[in-house]
Specification:
The chain is mainly α. It folds into two domains: about 60 residues; about 40 residues. About 60% of the residues lie in helices and about 0% in strands. The protein has four helices and no strands. The radius of gyration is 26 Å and the shape is flat. The two termini are about 30 Å apart.
């Protein structure tokens, strides 16, 4: 076909690597499952612990809450400076996003249009 550049390997197309060995595939899925569990379990524990009263937390640290106290969230929101912290996070994130867009636009233009040493490494 005319105008098509011959690719060096499958990675140039952006295709995924296919695992053909069944044992390797099982080990990869096992490792990913363990990693997912290690990420999700602390978040679940944090959520369930946030629904306990102070007394129940002292008595039953690892179990599920007997009485689910959603009022803890209202107390935390009104009794602390969480709204201020959230606003500060939003401001910092918005500033970072705006600066990233402003600075990356001319940089990407330079990378795409000009030749310089090390360009192929990018």
């Amino acid at each position: 076909m005319f105008g098509k550049k011959k690719l060096k390997n499958d990675f140039d197309q952006g295709s995924a690597t296919v695992i053909k060995n069944k044992r390797t595939k099982v080990l990869v899925y096992l490792a990913l499952t363990i990693a997912a569990i290690l990420v999700v379990l602390p978040l679940l524990w944090l959520f369930f612990t946030s629904l306990k009263s102070r007394m129940e937390l002292a008595k039953n640290t690892w179990g599920l809450p007997k009485v689910w106290e959603f009022s803890n969230y209202a107390i935390a929101w009104t009794g602390s400076e969480i709204p201020l912290y959230m606003l500060n996070s939003i401001r910092a994130t918005a500033t970072a996003i705006i600066l990233t867009v402003i600075l990356s636009t001319p940089v990407s233009f330079v990378i795409s249009r000009f030749r310089f040493k090390g360009k192929k490494l990018l």
